[in-house]
């Protein structure tokens, strides 16, 4: 029955987008062919009467998305980080999507807390406020712990939100498959992977223990970062549907009028926002994946306080090195090296011409560097870069797109505090330091030591593997089969050689 139900859901989505005036913008952003545009419009307008009206004060796309409910609002947020999929203009509109819904009653939240934590709210908290913020998945209450007097933020999932999201996820998967069939040119963007990414993010957010874990790990990584604070998780008052953490007292980063009236050095704070983001991404491989103004507060002493850790970005060490080399190549204006890195990492098909790709990258970078510092824009750079990578058939890299789009958001936050910020001046020392640590001679030694540690775990089995390889080699076999044990012996020999080399290096250090 899911097929017919999902078809009806798609029709209702199209009807809502038609009724709110968003359909044309979406079809344009997806570069839909004329036949698809005509068919979609005909079906959608036929059923427009079943579509939702939405808030007329909002732009068409955000109006349609908010009208469809929490899952669509969250999906819109995720798509705002994917300009490669929806286009820069639509991503910009979705970036400022209003993630505010009517709160659910406080007494319902209290009952959920008591059920989840097996406590009496009035016994544990001396104060427990009405909702101070309500979003698509959860809402937040300000409370005070009776025993210690500490102020905390208590986040509670919306009732029955898990079931609602699972139903909508079925429709999203179905829609992705339909889009790939009707719009073959979108396959490079991998719509089904986009939905899978969204599902992973949402399922993580629907278990507040995962968000608490991310916040805790992020706090450990950044505890030595001067001027940056991650509120402490109260594990004893947290569970799957409830999360309690220290209350973040400060001025929201989007309250620019209040910030300007303060005595804070906004230029220095703006520089620090970008500096810290790049440090987290390159140094730790874990960064705040939704670091817009609403998720940052500025304390009275100028410290940055991050909140809402439902969306976190992760990139492995190899990808960090690739990204750093690409960024460093642009900073150095070494477009040949940037092109080579793309090919070495397998991001661009090997049958393409590296020299031609380098020339295309020069056309991306040079206009940016010709601008005044206050007009240099990461957003503009990425817009050009997406055009070039599409031309050269580069497959979408979800983790890099997330990182790049978050960097655009962070750049916007930084520029709102310091309009004259030069992102390349801020980025250069961080990238250079990372390059020196991750790609220089020290990095080679560290990689060898890590290899030794991995091999040492299999040390007791190396003689056994070598003996098995030699026994197999002694058996009469066809020449074509002999390659396998020979390769096995080669691997053992290589492992032993690496082990010896690394041990010698470690001994010399």
Mean pLDDT across residues? 79
Biggest pleated sheet = 4 strands, antiparallel
Radius of gyration: 26 Å
Shape: globular
Strand content: 5-15%
How would you describe the overall organization of this protein?
A four-stranded antiparallel β-sheet has the order 1-2-3-5. The protein has 509 residues and is of the alpha+beta class. It has helices at residues 2-20, 23-29, 34-46, 60-68, 70-79, 83-86, 88-95, 106-117, 121-124, 161-182, 191-205, 208-222, 256-261, 266-284, 317-332, 335-344, 354-369, 378-391, 398-417, 423-439, 441-457, 462-474, 479-508; strands spanning 125-134, 138-145, 151-157, 228-229, 242-246, 251-252, 286-288, 296-298, 304-306, 312-314. Helix content is 62%, strand content 9%. The longest helix has 30 residues, at 479-508. Helix 15 (317-332) crosses helix 20. It is globular and about 75 Å long. It is built from 23 helices and ten strands. A hairpin with a 3-residue loop joins strand 1 and strand 2 (138-145).
């Amino acid at each position: 029955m899911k097929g017919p139900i999902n078809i009806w859901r798609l029709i209702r989505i199209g009807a809502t987008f038609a009724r709110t005036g968003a359909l044309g913008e979406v079809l344009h952003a997806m570069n839909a062919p004329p036949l698809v545009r005509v068919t979609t419009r005909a079906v959608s307008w036929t059923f427009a009467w079943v579509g939702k009206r939405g808030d007329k004060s909002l732009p068409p796309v955000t109006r349609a998305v908010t009208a469809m409910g929490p899952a669509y609002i969250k999906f819109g947020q995720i798509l705002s980080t994917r300009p490669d999929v929806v286009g820069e203009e639509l991503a910009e509109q979705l970036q400022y999507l209003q993630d505010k819904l009517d709160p659910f009653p406080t007494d319902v939240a209290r009952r959920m807390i008591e059920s989840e934590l097996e406590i009496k709210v009035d016994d544990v908290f001396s104060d427990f406020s009405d909702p101070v913020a309500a979003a698509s998945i959860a809402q937040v209450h300000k409370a005070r712990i009776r025993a210690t007097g500490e102020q905390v933020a208590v986040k509670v999932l919306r009732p029955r939100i898990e079931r609602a999201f699972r139903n909508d996820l079925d429709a999203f998967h179905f829609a992705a498959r339909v889009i790939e069939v009707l719009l073959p040119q979108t396959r490079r963007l991998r719509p089904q992977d986009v939905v899978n990414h969204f599902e992973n993010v949402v399922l993580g957010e629907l278990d507040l223990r995962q968000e608490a874990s991310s916040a805790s790990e992020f706090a450990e990584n950044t505890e030595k970062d001067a001027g940056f604070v991650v509120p402490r998780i109260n594990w004893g008052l947290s569970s799957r549907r409830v999360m309690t953490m220290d209350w973040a007292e400060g001025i929201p980063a989007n309250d620019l009028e209040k910030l300007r009236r303060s005595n804070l050095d906004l230029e220095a704070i703006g520089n620090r926002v970008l500096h810290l983001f790049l440090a987290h991404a390159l140094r730790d491989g874990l960064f705040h994946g939704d670091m817009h103004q609403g998720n940052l507060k500025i304390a009275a002493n100028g410290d940055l306080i991050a909140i809402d850790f439902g969306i976190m970005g992760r990139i492995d060490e190899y990808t960090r090195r690739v990204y750093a080399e690409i960024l460093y190549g642009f900073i150095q204006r070494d477009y040949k090296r940037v092109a080579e890195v793309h090919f070495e990492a397998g991001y661009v098909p090997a049958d393409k011409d590296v020299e031609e790709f380098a020339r295309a990258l020069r056309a991306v970078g040079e206009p940016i560097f010709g601008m005044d510092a206050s007009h240099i824009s990461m957003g503009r750079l990425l817009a050009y870069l997406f055009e070039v990578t599409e031309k050269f058939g580069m497959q979408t890299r979800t983790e890099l797109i997330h990182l790049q789009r978050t960097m655009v958001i962070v750049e916007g936050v930084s520029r709102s505090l310091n309009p004259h910020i030069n992102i390349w001046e801020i980025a250069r020392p961080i990238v250079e330091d990372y390059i020196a640590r991750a790609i220089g001679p020290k990095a080679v030694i560290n990689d060898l030591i890590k290899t030794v540690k991995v091999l040492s775990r299999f040390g007791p089995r190396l003689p056994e593997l070598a003996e098995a390889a030699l026994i197999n080699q002694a058996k009469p076999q066809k020449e074509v089969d002999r390659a396998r044990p020979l390769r096995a012996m080669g691997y053992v020999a290589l492992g032993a050689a690496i082990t010896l080399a690394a041990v010698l290096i470690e001994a010399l250090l």
